[in-house]
Amino acid sequence: MADHLLEVRNLSVRFHTTGGVVNAVNGISWHLDRGETLGILGESGSGKSVSAAAIMNLIDRPPGEITSGQILFDGQDLLQASEEERRRLNGKRISMIFQDPLSHLNPVYPVGWQIAETALAHGVAKAEAYARALDLIERVGIPDPKGAMRKYPHQFSGGQRQRLMIAMALVQKPDILIADEPTTALDVTVQADVLSLLEELQEETGMGLLLITHDLGVVAEACDRAVVMEGGRIVESGTPRGLYHNAQHPYTRKLLAAAPGRGEMREPESGRTPILQVRGLRKSYGGFEALKAVDFDLHAGETLAIVGESGSGKSTIARLILRLEEADAGSVKWKGEDVLTKSRRQMGGLRRQLQMVFQDPTQSLNPHMSVYDIISEAWVIHPDILPKAQWPTRVAELLEQVGLKPEHTQRYPHQFSGGQRQRIAIARALALEPDLIICDEAVSALDVSIQAQVIALLGELRDRLGIAFIFIAHDLPVVRDFADRVLVMQRGRVVEQGSVRQIFESPHEPYTQRLLAAGLDADPDVQAERRAARRQLARAIGQMADIVQ
Amino acid sequence: MGSSVLPTNTRPAMQARAGLRTVLRMLWADKLACAAAVFLLIVLLCAILGPLTLNELASGTNLRARNAPPFSLERGVFFILGGDALGRPLLARIIVAAQNTMAIAASAVIASLLVGATLGLIAGYAGRWLGEVIMRLADVIMSFPSLLLAVIVLYVLAPSIANLVLVLAITRVPIYLRTTRAEVLEVRERMFVQAATVMGASNRRIIFRHILPVILPTLLTIATLDFAFVMLAESALSFLGIGIQPPEITWGLMVSQGRQYLTNAWWLAFWPGLAIILTTMSLNLLSSWMRVALNPTQRWRLEVGGRKHG
Amino acid sequence: MKSMLGKRALSSFVSLFVLIVLVFFLSRLTGDPAALYLPVDASEEMRHNFREIHGLNDPLMVQFGRYMADLARLDFGDSLRKARPALDVVLEAFIWTLWLALVTMALVAVAAIVVGSIAAFHVGRPFDRFASVLSLIGASAPDFWVAIVGIVIFAVNLGWLPTSGTGTVWHWILPIAVLFIRPFGLILQVVRGAMITALGSAYVKTARAKGVRNRPIIFVHTLRNAMLPVITVIGDQAAALLNGAVVVETIFGFPGVGKLMIDSILQRDFNVILASIMVTAIAIFIMNILIDIAYALLDPRIRA
After folding, report:
1. Percentages (nearest 5) of helix, strand, coil residues in chain A
2. How close does chain B come to A348, measured CA to CA in Å?
3. Domains parsed from chain A with CATH numbers
4. Are residues C190 and C289 located together in one domain of the fold?
């Protein structure tokens, strides 16, 4: 019954771990045809990557175990095939690319050889294999293809590395390409480029594309059909439009509701006094200018979002304000006093007013300290805030405030989930009763639904306690319903700033427009519009380049 | 942990007891490490109680028992491993010698750990210039021939256990110094250290509350391994005649003294050597167990019970 | 890479200079050579003359200045004990040690890499357990004891091998076997760990997804990556051997630099002590550079 090119039937996989047996996927079924794009949508731990690993024979047994099901490819059950038969299919008829191209490319071999190896492993002669590799490097848009063949992975940018991975996967013109979170670690504009490259290549070769993602926007942008996974089961499937407008399952609805950029936009209140004034802030690392004279103001109780792609210098601003690094030039006035010229001792008193929440709570919480110690450390350092006798009640209070149970005081950070850890980090910042909290990519490591919860928590704290926020993010939609004003940064400069409404509804600068057009929206219709806008913009930039030449 | 305050006063005692129980349970989960710990405990008991109870027996010569062969009970339990060249029971001598062997190694390890870790913290956290000087100093110590050092100390300061400890401690300082510095340089860049800086924590607090607890497991693991190494080094020096001097005894010296009777009484050198091997092996086993047990993110492997494989 | 080399040469030179100064003055604390080289009943005048001939009567600072001046002309002085240039004495011994170290480390590297890789591929299975026990025993055994037991068994009881000295190939077997054990245990552990890490890495997953066979995955993709930490440890162990395996050389009467060192220390032959320190320091410096080159060859990320 070879109805489909690839069909997964009733697949169940479990893993034997020290903590017991984990059912990674439970009786899932889906199918994929030539020329079609299927999305598998799920958050971390949903089992969305497991069926792909089973198809590619990448599940280590033990500890993994396939307990039931069939994987039919061209009518043949892969699970019954021999190791050698499956090896012959891998890379030749079914290929796969992964999330983090830097670690998935071998660091010690030139990329030309690594791409050619896909052909070499399937018996193609050496000269032919290298010729194909060169063709593909050119096709995926790497500059100077001949020179690139001899370069090593670390010599390319993140987006280029993912293009090289794609080239590597397509050497043997496979019938199916599996892409596991192919754009997650990339900048928004690069993500859009990579997705359109995949689409073009699919049109050229007619391959089936399986797109595994956590991002509703990716589904809306690129997929013909999608299945939604939760806890190892498929809870719902359908077209992106159908899923968006008529989601049946509560989990899908929850995901859709969590998609950022849906709510009311905030208007900045006028007539507030600035509490932080940054002027001419500069910083270089060696010859690289990370910040080139940045100016901005922050008002009391205001939320300022700083948005930019990697290398834009947005995190450097935070580190300079908090004196984690020393600025080269400029001034940072906090309530009239210049922070940058303070001595270490003077800085100590100021620090309790300025707090920070870091990107990765796994790393920003000391693994050797209990939650109680982590939060109460604030009062050890600044004993005048709270008498010792009140610490236990206050810790419990703070935990409740960030949505955790007060009984968790004696637990250690590794006993919590990622979202809970970020809540602990927020509680720690609150313990000092600061006037400003700087959130450096504080939600970007979290799942979408968790992200929404943490942002909601921050919004609530802001409204209740009147804290000002600087919210640093690489993603525009995230800041849309949280910030009052937005600062867009590119290559160490502020390219545009304004109220949220100005930035989102009438951006002036081309870079801001590109950022907005590159952002992926969960609504397939909005996404279709953006796609058109993006093409138009690309064409305009192309024409500009022609004129310049 | 001085400044951490627990919600109620009864907690520390309860926690200490619970902590000990957890440690024992984790030890039980790794059977080899458990056996190693038991063996080391026995050695420790011998080292503490041995000289008190067996000193006379171990030093009393008995010409009729000269080089008495092992595995015979007719002269008493302590001759089970045979007698030495002066007819002294080997088992008793090994038990008595445990004290010197352990005391020398332990003091050398503790001294070099304290000095090395302190210098390493300074080199890692202080300015570049001071750090560089300390590192060059470590280089010099590393390449200074330990044998020469031992001979100098032996000639200039007269042979004594304390001086031997001094020699061994000096030669091992660079190990701790380098490890500590490398770890400090890495840990001080971690996010939670920066988070503490942002809260306004003092240097002292950052070093002792945030950096030291992270590197302590590594240092203790190395110290355990190094205990074995120092034992071997001490025996090698004693073996070459520039370590411990008779009538004091250590296991290394016993091997050395037994060497001339190799052809007709192998057991003189064999048993003390075996004692050294078993002790160092136990220390190695315990150290690899510690590497897991002292790491809060790895500890669960032992806490979930004895089903850990691979 | 070149500037790194220069920096390393400079810091090594500074360390070596400080070391020479320390050894020069401290070694003289061990006593008067005249007391060793002349008969017990030698007159004070004879002793005075002996010291005069060897320049030992001058103030220490003068002796040191003279020594450094000679050193600048590459004159390392004469050996008291052998009455020949100290450098010749040291180089003769060093050649023996060099061969001993080379052969031992070559064997250790091959054995540890092969056994360690196989163990890593079979984690938790009998072969892996066996290799772990082997490396544990290896890392725990005192070399002098193993040497003695080896002599008793293979030389005395079985009579297969000579007890000590040099001359035939058979003389090399026991010393090499004894020196082999400890580095083998240590390096085996490192190889196994590095291979386990490399086999679990993401690029291995990619290779499998490309349809690459198992053998090239192990020997092309992972081994080269796993070699990086291994080379460092091999370097450390080789440096220890180049410093002279004192105990093993003494027990087997092997005329290497380790035995020369302990003999010249005990006999207050100061020039030989200093010369052997410098020769081994230079050898270790060269070896470290070779290791850096190997590193750069293996890992393109370092070459930049």
Report:
1. 45, 25, 30
2. 5
3. 6-257 (3.40.50.300), 303-309+345-522 (3.40.50.300)
4. yes
